[in-house]
Design goal:
Radius of gyration: 40 Å
Largest sheet: 6 strands, mixed
Number of helices: 27
CATH superfamily of the largest domain: P-loop containing nucleotide triphosphate hydrolases
Shape: elongated
Strand content: 5-15%
CATH topology of the largest domain: Rossmann fold
Number of domains: 5
CATH architecture of the largest domain: 3-Layer(aba) Sandwich
Helix content: 40-55%
Oligomer: single chain
Length: about 700
């Protein structure tokens, strides 16, 4: 039966059902008054009823029940068996919401009011009250077969599923209160099936994946669909279908997998923002009832995204509302969360929803590269080893790239990742190169080794099989230890420029929070935001978190260790390079340091290195007088301090309207030493200063 034929059959069914209701109402109407009979002769007095005969008086507010002969039986055609999907809408509603025959007829009476304008007058006549032109429970009890008082119980379908609305003014008994049918239900009975307007304003439809999912994600979606369609352990007194918890940090993967699973189950997926869910208990209960009702009338599924839910403050109230919703409603439901929710009170299926594997991402990159196959495979492997993206993101990046070769795709991928991180940390534009570093050869070699590991991790981890041996994760972690200004930040810049990667500076002293759990939340946001791009994360002021452990004396000590371990775990699991920078290596706990792959020491530069720094510190455009580089190198400044002195000397020269000369540089050096609270030997300045120079 096609849709048009079903609509015709549904209309025929409703016409016949409403006609039967009209006939029943006619039978309820009191007989028309007739003129009083003529007086009978007194001799007929013995024919009157005895005084003891009971009076047949209807209940107040209830029409008298007609004799059985006046009750028109329900037409047999209204109860003809049919396949559930092909049955008239009222029959489907009765089956899905478990209505009794009497409850079905009450609903039909209320629906007839909407379909036939004459029903109101018939209701008034049937109740012998011109002011009661509407259905009442008393009318239904007298009118239909197998009446049941519990039909209006809050736990019975008519009220539990919000099928009818009871209007009971003060002083009016329940039996005389007016009944009206819910608009959504009357339209369903008429053949219009749509999401209830009260829910549609709170949820958004989620389109399923436009392209097939990668095999790893498709397998997860199929497993979910099977678990929902064949629940193993439904929890007593709770919705029978299990709740699906999608775990992991990537929202896009979770939504795509949920969309595919819903499609496999034949459901339309809708997403609910926790902020849109009302928080009052009564409002949550109403939403839950309506949603479960809709899930029985429509093939739909609910996706609740809690990834951005703050566990503190307003987030706690939202979480309580979501908990109640999950417990009180049924149907196909997905809970997107980073960590499992405990004590949900219903059957739960928990699955990890990860991004496509590196091999799957490599195939996606190869599909958008246009070089010859061998070159495309190599470039795809490079891209997949550095970026961690969904297939849709890869296609979007390719569409926005200025060309389909490695370089434009790489640049487009970096631009794609920047917005997520720019809000969380300070991005550094790397301008320094290897020649700008002035370090001992051993330290420079270590830095090149770090850059090499980042560049070749795809080959070693994937092609050479080391991924399976990395039980702690694939992260490359390092400690840069040395005094301020010795080149730690510059070294990170050099590596970022060498690898053409984004680099972000994070001040750990600002990340660490006095509130329990806040530090981990801040770090989680940072690492999750950096995963896509493989950006270099440069954690400055590591001393704020990695100080030597003392005896755990209270909860704050215990949580401090938890924070450190959390950071180390995330660094080890991070796909990119994470660098800790510290001015006080000796203050760091050795147990933590052992978990880092590299430790690079940044000593104060030697005189020869300081001379090279001085010679390179001024841009070519800077007007210079002849400077004595060897003499300048005798001052024990770090590279950062030399930069500050050179910059200050340039500003002094610009203000004086002359070139940068030795007196101005010496004045700038003197200021830098005083700022650092280092001793200033005026003899050194007199020896170096030309005649007439300021001492």
């Amino acid at each position: 039966m096609n849709a048009a034929d079903w609509n015709k059959e549904n209309d025929r069914y409703l016409s016949e059902a409403v006609a039967w209701v009209r006939t029943r109402l006619d039978g309820m109407a009191p007989p028309k008054e007739e003129p009083p009979p003529a007086a009978r002769p007194a001799k007929a007095f013995w024919r009157t009823s005895p005084a003891s005969a009971p009076l047949q008086v209807p209940l107040q507010g209830q029409a008298a029940q007609p004799p059985a002969a006046q009750r028109v039986p329900r037409p047999a055609s209204l109860d003809e068996p049919a396949e559930e999907d092909m049955a008239p809408a009222l029959v489907q509603l009765t089956t899905r919401l478990d209505l009794s025959p009497f409850e079905r007829d009450v609903l039909l009476l209320c629906a007839a009011m909407e379909f036939d304008t004459g029903i109101a007058a018939q209701c008034a006549r049937a109740q012998d009250n011109a002011n009661r032109g509407y259905p009442t429970f008393g009318l239904a009890l007298a009118m239909f077969d197998e009446p049941s008082w519990d039909a209006l119980s809050p736990e019975r379908p008519l009220r539990y599923w919000r099928l009818v609305d009871i209007r009971q003014p003060q002083g009016v008994p329940l039996i005389a209160a007016s009944l009206s049918i819910d608009e959504r239900i009357v339209n369903f009975i008429k053949g219009l099936n749509y999401l209830d307007d009260r829910l549609a304003m709170l949820v958004l439809p989620v389109a399923g994946p436009a392209e097939p999912l990668p095999p790893s994600q498709q397998a997860v979606a199929e497993a979910i669909a099977h678990a929902v369609a064949h629940p193993v352990e439904p929890v007593a007194a709770t919705p029978a279908l299990p709740l699906v918890q999608l775990l992991g940090p990537d929202s896009a993967s979770k939504r795509a997998i949920a969309g595919q699973a819903a499609r496999a189950l034949g459901c339309q997926l809708y997403a609910l923002d926790p902020a849109s869910l009302p928080q009052a208990v009564a409002d949550v209960e109403n939403f839950a009832r309506l949603w479960q009702r809709e899930s029985l009338l429509l093939p739909l599924a609910l996706y609740v995204d809690t990834d951005d839910l703050d566990p503190a403050g307003a987030g706690e109230a939202h979480r309580a509302a979501i908990n109640r919703l999950l417990l009180r409603t049924g149907g196909v439901m997905f809970l997107a969360t980073r960590e499992p929710w405990a004590r949900l009170g219903r059957a739960v299926v928990s699955v990890d929803a990860a991004k496509p594997s590196t091999a799957e991402q490599q195939r996606a990159w190869q599909d958008v590269l246009t070089q010859e196959p061998e070159r495309a495979a190599s470039d795809a492997a490079t891209l997949a080893s550095h970026f961690n993206l969904n297939v849709d993101d890869i296609r979007r990046i390719a569409a926005q790239a200025d060309g389909a070769a490695l370089a434009p795709l790489w640049d487009s991928a970096l631009l794609h990742a920047r917005p997520a991180l720019d809000q969380l940390a300070q991005r550094i534009d790397p301008v320094a190169g290897w020649d700008d570093l002035q370090l001992p050869d051993a330290e420079t070699a270590l830095l090149r080794q770090i850059a090499g590991q980042v560049a070749q991790r795809g080959a070693v981890y994937d092609e050479w099989g080391f991924r399976a041996r990395m039980n702690r994760g694939l992260g490359i972690s390092a400690l840069f230890a040395g005094d301020s200004g010795t080149g730690k930040t510059m070294a990170a810049e050099v590596i970022a420029r060498e690898l053409h990667l984004l680099i972000y500076r994070i001040d750990l002293s600002a990340v660490v929070s006095k509130f329990i759990g806040e530090t981990e939340k801040n770090l989680r946001k940072l690492f999750d935001g950096a995963e896509d791009s493989g950006a270099i994360l440069f954690f400055d002021e590591a001393d704020a978190l990695f100080g030597k452990r003392s005896e755990v004396k209270d909860s704050h000590d215990r949580y401090a260790n938890i924070e450190v371990n959390y950071l180390l775990q995330r660094m080890e699991a991070y796909r990119g390079l994470a660098i800790l920078a510290s001015n006080r290596k000796g203050a760091l706990d050795t147990a933590f340091l052992r978990r880092l792959r590299f430790i690079v020491n940044f000593p104060m530069p030697a005189p020869s290195q300081r001379e090279r720094i001085w010679r390179r510190i001024f841009p070519p455009e800077t007007p210079l007088e002849e400077l004595d580089w060897q003499r300048l190198a005798q001052f024990g400044l770090s590279g950062g301090s030399i930069h500050n002195a050179a910059l200050n000397a340039a500003f002094l020269a610009a203000r004086a309207g002359r070139k940068v000369d030795m007196p101005l540089v010496l004045e700038a050096i003197r200021g830098e030493l005083r700022k650092l609270e280092k001793p200033v030997s005026e003899a050194d300045f007199r020896q170096l200063a030309p005649a007439g120079a300021r001492s």
